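Is this the right way to post structure tokens for a design question? Let me know if I should format differently. Anyway, here goes:
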């Protein structure tokens, strides 16, 4: 079972670590423009953590529900989960784009932005929000692939998206001199590249899962109620987490741009650790769902136990490295 865990966790760890790599890379690009730009890109990224992390339930619930249907060998249930989550993600993302102005104002208030930071963060926010449909729909695709016990496609997508993001951001910032807007546009274009590539992989590998499905199955009341209940609980769990990070950024911003810039850099180390450990969390979501759906209680308990030890061991490794160095 350790091999099964690692088969899913290692690709997830590699893909997850590339996420804070982008944030660190953006920080480096902004470093050449001054501490104010570092602080602004950190605040802008935090604003989208408020937005995207809070809707991370789209990936988590899709993984769990798809994995349960996979364990039951219920192909119709896997398809229904993909469609429900996709429709929900599309609706949320379009609402975010439509409500971008009040969202930006709320973000400015929560993050305690100073006058000199406001213009830079606004430039970043109003460009980056355009990526919402691609970003949220990618969460659904990732979750569905994980639920199907496929960690390779998310790895391929993440590496290609982040590679495109880095190349585009470098060109727009260093060559075209677009400043913080260049970082935002690089992210937007890369997200849409990733979404369309994800659709291509879905069509290529799972063409039968895109067949038509009866509307009454999508609206089946018991499954629909369970779907929204799980997503509701995950949303409030994630909201508590993002509010804690938001409070930290807000208080840092209140103390001045230099302290904020320093804390943005320090939080990159926390992100490296958390995204790495999330690799085992993703494996747990996928495998727990699979054995729960298959009603294999013995393997279910074993998977929970083993993923706990693997994740805890990696946390101790990261902590030891930070302590020593």
């Amino acid at each position: 079972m350790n091999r099964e865990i690692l088969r899913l966790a290692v690709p997830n760890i590699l893909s997850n670590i590339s996420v804070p790599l982008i944030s660190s890379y953006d920080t480096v690009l902004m470093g050449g423009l001054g501490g104010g730009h570092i602080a602004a890109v950190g605040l802008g990224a935090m604003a989208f953590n408020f937005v995207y992390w809070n809707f991370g339930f789209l990936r988590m619930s899709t993984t769990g529900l798809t994995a349960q249907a996979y364990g039951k060998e219920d192909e119709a249930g896997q398809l229904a989960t993909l469609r429900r989550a996709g429709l929900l993600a599309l609706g949320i993302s379009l609402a975010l784009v439509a409500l971008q102005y009040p969202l930006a104002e709320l973000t400015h208030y929560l993050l305690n932005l100073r006058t000199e930071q406001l213009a830079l963060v606004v430039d970043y926010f109003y460009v980056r929000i355009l990526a919402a449909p691609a970003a949220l729909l990618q969460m659904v695709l990732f979750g569905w692939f994980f639920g199907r016990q496929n960690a390779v496609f998310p790895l391929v997508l993440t590496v290609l998206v982040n590679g495109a993001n880095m190349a585009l951001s470098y060109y727009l910032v260093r060559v075209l001199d677009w400043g913080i807007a260049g970082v935002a546009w690089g992210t937007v274009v890369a997200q849409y590249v990733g979404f369309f590539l994800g659709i291509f992989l879905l069509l290529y590998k799972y063409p039968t899962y895109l067949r038509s499905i009866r509307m009454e199955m999508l609206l089946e009341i018991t499954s629909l109620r369970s779907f929204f209940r799980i997503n509701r609980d995950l949303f409030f769990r994630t909201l508590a987490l993002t509010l804690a990070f938001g409070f930290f950024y807000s208080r840092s911003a209140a103390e001045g741009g230099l302290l904020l810039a320093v804390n943005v850099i320090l939080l990159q180390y926390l992100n490296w650790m958390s995204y790495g450990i999330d690799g085992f969390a993703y494996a747990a979501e996928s495998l727990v769902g699979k054995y729960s759906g298959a009603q294999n209680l013995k393997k279910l308990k074993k998977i929970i136990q083993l993923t706990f030890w693997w994740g805890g061991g990696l946390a101790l490794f990261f902590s030891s490295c930070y302590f020593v160095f």
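Format looks fine. Someone answered above. Worth noting: Residues 257-293 form the longest helix (37 residues). The chain has 13 helices and no strands.
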